[in-house]
Amino acid sequence: MKKQKNKQVIKASKLAKAENMKKKVITVQNAEGEPETQAEILIQNKIGYTPKVSVIIPVYNVEEYLRECLDSIVKQTLREIEIICVDDGSTDNSLEILKEYALKDNRITVMVQENSGSGKSRNNGINNAKGEFIAFMDSDDFYPSHKTLENMHTKACKYNVNICGGSLNQLKDGKIITDPKLFEDGYIFEKEGIINYKDYQFDYGYWRFIYKRQFLKKNQLYFPDYLRQQDPPFFIKAMATAQQFYALTEATYVYRVSHKVIQWTERKAFDMFQGIEDGLKYSLMFNLKKLHIQQALRINAWTFRTALAETIKYDKVRKQAQKAVQTIDVSLLKQNGINLKLDCIYSSIIENNIFISVIIPVYNAEKYLKKAIDSVLSQTLARIELVCINDGSKDGSMRILSEYQKNYSNIKVIDQKNSGAACARNTGIQRAEGEYVFFLDSDDWIPNCHVLEHLYSYAKNHNLQICGGSLCRWDGNTYHHNFNQTQGGYVFQQEGVVSYETYQFDLGFSRFIYDRSMILQKNIIFPMYRNYEDPFFFVKAMTEAKQFGAIVEDVYVYRETQGSASHQKSLESILDMLQGMWDNLKLAEKNHYCRLYALTFQRMNKESLCEIEYALNNLDTEKKLFLLLLQINASIKWDLIPDYTKCLLEPLDMIYQEYRKYEKIRNGKMVRGIRKIRSFLKR
């Protein structure tokens, strides 16, 4: 027990002594064109030899894996090494683990720096290294064998090469993967020997190699100061400068796969596209045509598209992505029979146009507005603009819109006097710049981040002017994914191109994107009604387009609230509703849409009956509604209504008849009263 305590005391005193050493602050040289930085050497033990290999490890919040990494290095059979650990501002227990290992092994140097990324960490290590060769190790990875460094060093010296390395293994779900079929070709060497980089032309997996230190220093080969994609530019430049390297068939590195979820920030995405641009430029600079093509095709990969999709709202990221894509030598690809079809997210950047303008009319919507806006800003489709029309709100809606406009360059805010949703949408169409327009009410939202990308891609792939999906209803407690009222027009059961002649439905216009040029050229606008203004717009647009694309997924969430226009029973709203229905009847008649004609009349006689009856009996003091009903009744085209539907018209006819009787009685009483007054006056 006493001996154990003494050991602990000695250990603690060693640590204290090490930490109390005169702190050494060094100036760090970085990649060309980047400013110098500073790092502090916290612990630097003395060794009595020139290291054969300096292993450089950037460390940031990796306490879970750090011991496995360090053990794989300190147990190497090549003993004449130094281990340079650069803590990049860890907030977990990583630094304490480094100190612990430094006390046990005098080959370990511990450096610390403010959080600056792994690129600067490696540059710090390069500038402080003394070894003949330099190896790079990520702190969550490890060497597959205790002889790895010895084997690479032996071959590098024997064949007098500046770079030497081997194949890659992966660690996934706790299992080592060695099957070459699961890797890109460049990760596996099937034959040992010297390889010309012109024959290799690969840009990933730099940690599998050791690099002669003087070669790196002489050629100023450092990592760029990027938070992402800093490895390939370094690797390409190093390989192209060396021209050749020695390859071992054995695995020289174990890479731990996908244990971290990347949280994409503006800086990370920007840096990544800088790294892509560098790689494309270097491949052209060194005449590495195969590598250039490989990188151009890889730019469409999921990781890059996801990063861009999550950060496309930042102008800086968009512009850098544009630069990267425009660096691609398209003519080189064509010469090799490759027709590069970039994902639409990149196409929009190259063309620098707006794909979709989302138009939101806003009136007293502060309770729900943020959810609606956030659902647009989260969309994966590039180059979306948001056009918000504040329609004379009296609550905090305008304040919310102003805050978003300050933070997002793709948001337009238009302030106007209260004029209704129709006027607001028409204003939005005029001010929009997108190829397509999408309408979103301020209390609704888009259900997932891929909706607009799916709609746009389908529309473009099938050369369509209109494309839409299904509607989901939220009643405050439950999502109704099969919102299938009124003969099923709200839900699509299968994907495809649909003829409007077949569809003949007029509700749910906001589930679709519309070609803006078609809308403007054909002067398709919303009628200035407070209610039922959207079906007319929808039918007119569909009539012009003749067909549309349908996708099966829900693309719109409709919030069913008691305060919505559909629940208001003002005379004006009911008059507008009937006028809108009449407009649709005339449009259906003109185009001989029998199904739509019958559907509209059915809705008038069934769904709107209570509101009409209420208004007739309680609100229609000037007989405006009564006169409109008479006009509509007189214009009915009975030949357009199937026999099975006519029975549904009886309730409305009853209202007409009853109201006429009431008017006759009322008028009769008034006439008799006037006669009595006149006869009284004559006396």
Concise summary:
By secondary structure, this protein is an alpha/beta fold. The model is unreliable at 1-6, 16-22 and 563-568 (pLDDT under 50).
Provide tags for this entry.
single chain; 683 residues; alpha/beta; Spore Coat Polysaccharide Biosynthesis Protein SpsA, Chain A; 4 domains; eleven-stranded mixed beta sheet; nine-stranded mixed beta sheet; 20 strands; 19% strand; elongated; disordered N terminus
The CATH class of the largest domain is identified as: Alpha Beta
Helix content: 40-55%
The CATH homologous superfamily of the largest domain: Spore Coat Polysaccharide Biosynthesis Protein SpsA, Chain A
Rounded mean pLDDT is 84
Taken from the alpha-carbon principal axes, the silhouette is elongated
Q: Give the terminus-to-terminus CA distance.
A: 133 Å
How many domains make up the 3D coordinates?
Answer: 4
The low-confidence runs, each spanning 5 or more residues with pLDDT under 50, are 1-6, 16-22, 563-568
Q: What Rg is obtained from the alpha carbons, in whole angstroms?
A: 36 Å
CATH architecture of the largest domain: Alpha-Beta Complex
Structural category is alpha/beta
Number of strands: 20
> Beta fraction of the residues?
15-25%
Please work out how many helical segments DSSP would assign: 27
Largest sheet: 11 strands, mixed
**CATH structural fold name of the largest domain:** Spore Coat Polysaccharide Biosynthesis Protein SpsA, Chain A
